[in-house]
Amino acid sequence: MLEIDGSVGEGGGQIIRTAIALAAITGKEVEITNIRANRPKPGLSAQHLNAVKAVERLARGKTEGLELRSTRLQFTPAELKGFEGEIDIGTAGSITLLLQCLVPVALFADSETKVRITGGTDVNWSPPIDFYTHVYLPALQEMGGVVHLDVTRRGYYPKGGGLVDVSVTPTRHLKGIVLQKREEAGVINGVSHSCGLPAHVAERQAKSAKRILKEAGYDTALKTEIDGEGKRTTGSGITLWSGYKSGSALGERGKRAEVVGEEAAHVILRELKAPSTIDVYLADQLIPYIALADGKSVIKVREMTKHLETNIYITQKFLDVEFEIKREETEEGREVFVIRKV
After folding, report:
1. 188-273 belongs to which homologous superfamily?
2. pLDDT in tens, 166-215
3. Which residues are catalytic?
4. Which one of 7, 43, 323, 339 is separated from 84 by 20 to 30 angstroms, measured CA to CA?
5. Under CATH, which number does the domain 2-179+277-326 receive?
C-alpha cells in the first residue's frame, strides 16, 4: 500500500484528487493521512467526497474514512468500468475540481462514462468552467483524450446549482504533448457572464477587460452571457483565453465590475508576456496525463507553483516516471522553467 502525507507540498485537495485517480488507474491501494491538515477546515469537504465516490464507482473500489471532515482515507481499487449517472455535489462545490479526479480514470475505463453533475461552475479556488472547456480540454484532446462537456447552467457561490453534462470516451493510450515554442497570441477570446444581476454587470466586466487588452496591443473577441433569473444562483465572472494561456476573475459583493474585468486581463497578460508555452493553471493539471502518455512531453511554465510541484511529487509516487525540470533564461533576461518527461 502506498502511504501519502496529505499535508505535503500544496497540502490541499489536489493531493486527494491526483492520488485517488492514479490509484484507480494503476490498481494500487493507497492510504492518505493528514488530509488538508493546514486548511481552516481540515479534512474532506463535499467536493472531495463526491470526487472519491465517483472514482470508487468507476474503479469498483472500496474506501475507508469516506466521510465529511475525515483526515484519513484508504482506497482499494478494482476493475475500471464506465458508468452513466448523476452527481450532486451540493452547495457550490467545484465541478471542475471533481472532474480533475474523474476524467483521467474514465479515460482508462472499459466503456464510455456519462455523468450529469450539479454544483459550482465558477467558484473561488478552482478552475472556471470556461477554462476547462477552452484551454484544458483542447490540450487533453491534443494528447488523444476525447471528452465532451456541455454547460446547461452556471452555479456560483454559495448556492451552486450549476449543471454540466460530461461524456468521456476511453482511450487506453494517450500521446505525449510537446510545446517547446511559445505561440504569438492572436485574438484573445473570452466570456463575461452573470446571473441574477443587472445586465450591465457582465457588460462592464467585458468592457474593462477589452480596454486593458487593447492598451497592451491585443485584439479581443469577448462574449457576454447574461441570465436575469437570480432565484437559483447569483454571481458573475469573466474568463479570457488564447491558446493554452488564460486569465479569469470572479465578481463578489462590493467589488466593482470594472475591477473584475481588469483583474482577468492582467492575469492573462502576465502569462502572454512570459516565455512559457502554457499557463501555470494548465501545467499542474497536465502532469498526470503526461506521465501516463506514450512518448516524450515538453512544456514550459513561467513559475513552479506549489500545485505543480505537488502534482509531480504525487505522480512519481504512483508511476515509474521522472520529470526533468530545468530553469532557463531568455535573451531578454526572463525566466522560464522547462519540464520534460524523461
Report:
1. RNA 3'-terminal phosphate cyclase, insert domain (3.30.360.20)
2. 999 999 799 999 999 888 778 999 999 999 999 999 999 999 999 999 99
3. 307
4. 43
5. 3.65.10.20
